[in-house]
Please model this.
Amino acid sequence: MTVPIGLAEQTEIAAYVDFVAGAPEPLREKLGISSRRVGDLQALVLREDPSGFFNRAGGFESVSVETLTEVCDFFRAGGLSAGAFAIAPSLLPADWATTAAQLNLTESTRFAKLACTLDTVPAAVDSDLRIARVEPEQAEQFATVMMNTFGFTTPAMIDLTASCVGRENWQQYAAWDNDELVAVGSIFVNGACADMFGGATTPAARGRGAQSALLAARLRGAREAGCRWVVAETGAEGPGEHNTSLHNMLRAGFTHLYDRVTWRWTAV
Model:
């Protein structure tokens, strides 16, 4: 049995909300962090994020104008001029075009949603890099590699990431080249389902199998935590495009569930 769509989507947004809103109060105030649950879904605001990446809502099991409007109002009250909705394509109602136009929602980035069933113990992947869990004393090093690789270089964002290391329901892993940390990846455990989160490899270390080795380690970690499924998200491929992360996940045993449009809300 494949993972239910609602659980897959709720696990993803739960990871984002816990990662951001679980930060210490001084960081939440400094970064303008707030979150809200609206029915089945959760919404997140990180006001001091110039990229807008973390300002999102997801976890839908159904879609209504009333719920979407409440989230748009939450984004606006949080000081945002834009936010994102992640909605599985099968959940979009027949009149979606009308609803999207009414709320000023437009198509943005497309993501591939993947899932892996943990019926057997995933095999380890040979690598010349050392793969291990991240210890609390390595939190800053882990966070610096992760956030710098993704382009989040402000000290507060690195502190936000470091604060997640060792938190309940999280497992952080890294790849080391001798004493240098060169790649990272986490899982967030949401009951029977875990979410692959924040996989990143420094440019100089790419092509050495770090991501594949970290994927295998995280799948084993999820199974040991009692999970039945693991879900993941990565950029969808357009015509003529090749996403290495997507193909690494497929080789690791993930199945492609669907491509999902990010619906961008803009204040008017």
